[in-house]
Amino acid sequence: QKSENAQKINGRFIPVVVMDMRQEQGRNNDDVAELQSRYKVRGYPTLVVQYPNNGESRQLVGFAGADQTMAFLNQ
């Protein structure tokens, strides 16, 4: 099921991973800090879906499992 979910995600979205490096390096680079501010990221992991046609976005904070993540993405 993992590979099936990965195929669905890669077929419908452009996945981008942004790493929070505060613990490892003491701070994030400016690009990461700007993204965290723009999307008001307050917890990790945070999944952001940005809609290209209207500029709106949705978030899922935390990881509650593959089924809930896929349900969120399928909305």
Name some characteristics of this structure:
13% strand, alpha+beta, 75 residues, 4 helices
What is the topology?
Elements: H1 2-12, H2 22-25, H3 30-38, E1 46-50, E2 57-61, H4 66-74
Q: Can you describe what's shown?
A:
The chain has 75 residues and is of the alpha+beta class. Helices cover 44% and strands 13% of the residues. The protein has four helices and two strands, in the order H-H-H-E-E-H. The protein has helices at 2-12, 22-25, 30-38, 66-74; strands at 46-50, 57-61. Strands 1-2 form a two-stranded antiparallel sheet. The longest helix has 11 residues, at 2-12.
Largest sheet: 2 strands, antiparallel
Overall 3D shape: globular
Helix fraction? Answer: 40-55%
- Which stretches are low in confidence, meaning pLDDT under 50 for 5 or more residues running? none
Mean pLDDT: 90
The gyration radius over C-alpha positions equals: 14 Å
Q: List the helices and strands in order.
A: HHHEEH
Structural class: alpha+beta
User: Roughly what fraction of the amino acids lie in strands?
Assistant: 5-15%
End-to-end separation in angstroms reads 19 Å
Number of strands: 2
Strand numbers in spatial order across the main sheet: 1-2
DSSP helical segment count = 4
